[in-house]
Fold this sequence. Notes:
Blueprint: H1 3-14, E1 35-39, E2 42-46, H2 56-59, E3 65-66, E4 69-70, H3 77-80, H4 90-102, E5 110-114, E6 124-126, E7 151-153, H5 164-175, E8 180-183, E9 190-195, E10 204-207, E11 238-241, E12 247-253, H6 264-267, E13 272-279, E14 284-291, E15 309-312, E16 323-324, E17 327-331, E18 337-342, E19 347-353, E20 358-359, E21 362-363, E22 368-374, E23 381-388, E24 397-401
Parallel strand pairs: 2-5, 5-8, 8-10, 17-24
Antiparallel strand pairs: 1-2, 3-4, 6-7, 9-10, 9-12, 11-12, 13-14, 14-15, 16-21, 17-20, 18-19, 18-22, 22-23
Helix pairs in contact: 4-5
Amino acid sequence: MPPVWVNMVQRTQCSHLPDPWDATPVEQGLSVYYCPLLVGGVSFAVIEDRKWKSSPTVQIPQARIRNGWAQNRSYDASRDGDVPGAVLLGRRQLDFLEQWAADWSGDIWMKAVVSQTLFANVATLPREDAMSGDITPRLRVLPPGEYAEGDVRVQDHDSNGWPQTGRNMALERMRRGFAVHITGDQHLGSTIRYGIDEWGDAGYAIGVPAVANIWPRRWFPPPSEGGNRRPGAPFYTGDFRDGFGNKITVHAVSNPHTVEAEPTWINQRAPGYGIIVFNRETRRITMSNWPRWVDPSAAGARPYPGWPITVDQMDNYDRRAVAYLPTLRVLGMQDPVVQISNEAVGEIVYTIRIKGTTFRPRVFQHGRYSVRIGEPGTPRMKVVSHLESTPSTEDSRLVFAF
C-alpha cells in the first residue's frame, strides 16, 4: 500500500502512544512510533519489529523466497540464512533499547518490551508441507491429547527467528534491563525463554493468541528432541532449536485442539488473549494465555494448559556468571538502582533496581568494572570504579551510606 495509507493506519492504531523516541520518518516518508511507555512503575519499550526488517527475498536471492518461505530445497536457513547485513530492528531501535534498558529513573521497577512477534519461529508442519504456510488453515485439528507425528520445525522468514544475528542483537540489549517480551500477531500462543549462546541466557517471552485466530499455527516437534524436559511435561516443551537454529526453551503452547465451545469453527483454532501480571512486592511476572470463551473472573476459570507461568524478574538475564564483584550493601535507601559497567569496553553490562539493600553483581568476563548505585536523576547516586572481578568463592563487601 502507498505510504499515505500506511501512515493513516499507524495514526489510527498508535496515536495513543507517547511521542516516538526519535520521530524522524524512514524512507518514503513513513512515520515511526517506537517509544518508551511508563505505567505504574513498569517501563515498556514499544518497538517496531517489522519496519526495519530486511527483505529475505533481497538478502538471500538463492533461497528463492516466496511470502517468507524458501522454494530452493537445497537452502537451509539454519545454515545459510544468517547473511551479513540482514537487519531486524535497525540501528535506531537498537540504540533506543540500549538507552531504555539503562534508564530506571522515576521509580521504575520493572521492564517489558512490546512488539509484534516472538524472536523465534515456534511452528511445525507436516514434512511434505514445510515449504509453505498455505496449508496452515486447512490442517486437521486434533482432539485433546493427540500428538501430530511427522511434523518438522519450519523456516518461515516472516517470523522474527530471522535474521538470526539481528535477533540476537535485540535480545542482548533487552536482557541488559532484565526485560520480559510481550508479543501478539496470529502466531501460536506460547511462553518461551530465549537463548543466545546458551539455552536460557536471555529473557522470557509470551506470545498471546489472537482473539480471532484464522491462521492456527502449531508446535509438534519430534518427541525425542526437547532437551531438559521436566518429568511429565508435554513433548513439545523443553530446549529446542527453532527452524533457524535459534536456541529456545518452550514452556507452554496453546496448540489448536477440538473443543465444544461454540462457535467451534473459530474456537478450535486456539483463539484467546493473554494476561501478564507484574508484582511489585515480589518482582515476579505471571504470564497466562486464556481461551477466548473463558471469563478469567469466573469461579474455577482456567487458562490454556501449561499456564500460568511465574518467573522472577532476575530470570530475564540468567546468564552463567564467570566472576563476581563485591557484595553491595546499602544504608539509608531501599531498593536502589544498580548499574554495572565493563571498563575495558566502556559498556553497560546491565542495570536493575534491586529488591532490598544487598546485592552481589554477577559479571560475564574477568576484568575491571564500575558500579553506579542510588536513585537516578537525583543527587543520591554514588560511583565506585576499578573493581576487580573475583571468583564466586571470594567475597568482600562494599557499603554505601545515603
